[in-house]
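This section describes the prediction task in plain terms. A model, or a person checking by hand, is given the sequence of a single protein chain and must write out its three-dimensional structure as a string of tokens. No templates, partner chains or ligands are provided. The sample shown here is typical of the held-out split.
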Amino acid sequence: MAETQPGSGTVKKALVVLELVASFERPVRFPEVLELSDFPKGTLYRLMKTLVDQSMLSFDPGEQTYSLGLRLIRLAHAAWKTASLAPIARPFIESLAAQARETVHLAQIDNGQVLFIDKLQAPGRSQTLAKAGKVVPAYCTGVGKAMLAFMGPRRLDIALQQQAYFKYTPSTHGSAETLIPELHEIRDLGIAYDREEHEQGIISIAAPILSDNGRVLGAVSIATSTNHHSLDSLNNFRTALLETTARIGAEATSWQFPS
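The expected answer:
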């Protein structure tokens, strides 16, 4: 066991560096990474050089910048195809987006945080912060609340403890005490709303994707701006949204989508 610990530590450090580079969402110079890193300069340089050597990072000598490497992108694409809900859900959310003519998000939840795994942006509609690969809190998003509401008690208790309850807007929940009553309402209604809780001016209607035994697999939302819709008018999409999530859940169950 002791022999594996150094290797495990190195892998962990490398993953931290990859996540740090990815967080910039653009090519980044070494000093920028160093400024945010907890690693000493020499350690960080060696880690990044190793990642470049393994094609997990790409280095542009002309610009002196680092970006995610082709090998990492290939691995991510393979994971998207085999371990993600996205390929299963894609034809269904395409149909929903065409019907609603608004932006559709597909998300899953991990360690209490929402991971957006697919997005179909409606032409001419307001851009949202959400995009594939983006991680956001669960307590202040439509998809997040939809998934939290349908969790079992133990899983929900853990997830609620993982929320920061930062007030992004005046509408954001500031504690579990205000969030929990809404989760009960969501479970009764089958749908959740984002009432400008994460982004000012952006609202959504969301529903969970459930397996045939009620396990939460993910969620779908239709998001728009307050310039185009109100929360009341978003209810026009409720039936189509629930039909979409039911079909995705049935398809995912038949494919034995993993926990």
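For orientation: The longest helix spans residues 4-23.
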